[in-house]
Structures are given as structure tokens and as C-alpha cells.
Amino acid sequence: MSINLGFMCSGRGSNLRAILEAIAEGRLDAHPAIVISNDPMAKALSVAKESGVRAVCIPSTGLSRGDHEQKVLEVLETEALDFLVLAGYMRILSETFLREFKDPRGFYRIVNIHPSLLPAFPGKSAYEEAFNYGVKVSGITIHLVDEKIDHGFILAQEAFPRYDDDTLATFKARGLAVEHKLFPEVLQILAQGQLSFLTRELVQP
User: Fold this and answer.
1) Which of 114, 143, 151, 180 is catalytic?
2) The whole model's pTM is what?
3) Which class is 3-112+144-154+179-196 in CATH?
């Protein structure tokens, strides 16, 4: 069935664009309801507008996390979202915010993408840390968000190689290609209701 998606982004919106393209091409059975960014300069806002998706900027500068999240929730409550998708959102969400998306089945209906094979290299500099560490294989993780950073239940992972002649730029480009393919695929699985493990209690006390 079609699912109603909201998005939160902080940057250029390349994953958002890949997801919107998958929806337009019929590879993802979803409706993009809204895109919210905390940065007025985020290109993701333009990506949303180009696709006719409601785009809202709620600047986080000068606001406490609680005040900013309250403003975001006031906007999101106007949408009946099945899942909230973090596509390059660079702020940590509080437990108060997460609780607004608590599913009766025991998990939060918030999906995040991370550029490493979690639990390796959590945090905002995963590509750089993996490259500098000298990994021979890295990857992309898509997971449900929980109270810990880059920690929630893993929905999917896909590996990609690091070649001897790679630069950081070529290494990142290979990873981004995986990101743009994997994210819409996982969301489509959610749309089809094929994740039977979602009936389990996923959020640990």
C-alpha cells in the first residue's frame, strides 16, 4: 500500500532527490507529504519545491533543541505520516520528539540512513573516519531511530569496496551511489508491509 512520508533534511538533499525520483518513476509506492529543514540554505528545500512537495524551513539557530523540536512537531502534526525519514538530517532528536512517533508495535516510525556498516563508525564523519582507518570494505546502513545515536534496529545494510587508488572523493561517490539505490528500496519494503519483524518489540528499555 502507499505510505505517507515526511522528510527532515539539513543539506543538499541527494537522498531526498533519489527517493522522490523513485516515487515519480513508480518504484516506490509512497506520497511525499512534506520536507522540513533546519537550515534555510539547505538545497533539499529546492529539491522538494522542484518536485512539488511542501517545503518548510524551521531554522534551528538561536533555539534550544526543545523549542526547535516543538516548532517542527507543530508542523508535522498537520500531516498523517506513516514514517518520518531522516535524509541527511544533522541534529540529534530528543526522546520527547521520538515519543510522538512511537508505534504500538514498539518502535519509532523514524527511518535514518548512515554511511557505514553500523555499529562501525557512528557519528557525522563516518566516510572520513572509515577512509582514514583504511577499511577495505565499508557500506551503508538504513535503520530505525532509537534513543541512542546511530544505533536503532537495522533494516538493511549494503557493502561497497574501498580500492587501493581511491581518494576520499571517489570513496564517498561509491558510497553515495549505494545510498541512492538502497534507501528507496527499503522504503518500498516498508510500503509493502513485508517487514514481519516490525511486529516485535524493537525499542529496548
Assistant:
1) 114
2) 0.91
3) alpha beta
